Amino acid sequence: MTRKLHDTLRELGYDKTLEKAVEGLIPDTRDRLNYIAVKTEQAAERALSATEVAQPLQEKIESGASALSGKWDRMFSNQLSVDEFKQLVSDTRSYLHEVPKHTQATNAQLMEIMMAQDFQDLTGQVIKKVIDLAQQVETQLLQLLIDSTPAEKRNEVDIGLLNGPVVNTEGRSDIVTNQQQVDDLLESLGF
Fold first, then answer.
1. What single-letter DSSP state applies at residue 165?
2. Which domains does the chain have, with CATH numbers?
3. In 25-61, which positions are buried (b, 16+ CB within 10 angstroms) versus exposed (e)?
């Protein structure tokens, strides 16, 4: 059976296609997917780092505004002495001088987060090439299977099996959609 398949591959010209895929396309695809993983990881690290820098700045603005708001509420309720009022005015002035510095620093971190997303353009192009390659390989392998299947068996092929993974799971109960369901399925099969 192996000999017959090998001879059929050679007769149909698929032996060179498979050889080309194994020697060049698959390693190239692996490199492309690794590139995507590295760029995605770098972008995530940049975004997380910028968020870690910006978060304390925002907390400082929030806590300062809350504290001043409470003091101003006390002032409008006539609960502050003259000295406390003078201190409130001084604190408010200091706070207002600090806010632009914090917002500028926060804006810089938001810009860093936005710039970290530049990977999407680069990796999107690579992903498209990998998808095109996968479709070519899938089409060629499917054609190989069809060509090597005896004529009487070709009509028995379940077309649904040729569709690949389900992308839109809405309204479907015949598929697994999360890791827990995969684990449950494997457990039910004794794994």
1. S
2. 2-151 (1.10.287.500)
3. beeebeebeeebeebeeebeebbeebeeebeebeeeb
Q: If you count them, how many residues does the chain have?
A: 191
What does the DSSP assignment read for 4-64?
HHHHHHHHHTHHHHHHHIIIIIHHHHHHHHHHHHHHHHHHHHHHHHHHHHHHHHHHHHHHH
CB atoms near residue 16 (< 10 Å): 10
| Cα separation values, 6 from 23, 77, 147, 148, 150, Å | 18, 92, 12, 10, 15
Hey, how many other C-beta atoms are within 10 angstroms of the C-beta on 112? 16
Question: Is pLDDT of 149 > 80?
Answer: no
Q: What is the pLDDT of residue 54?
A: 95
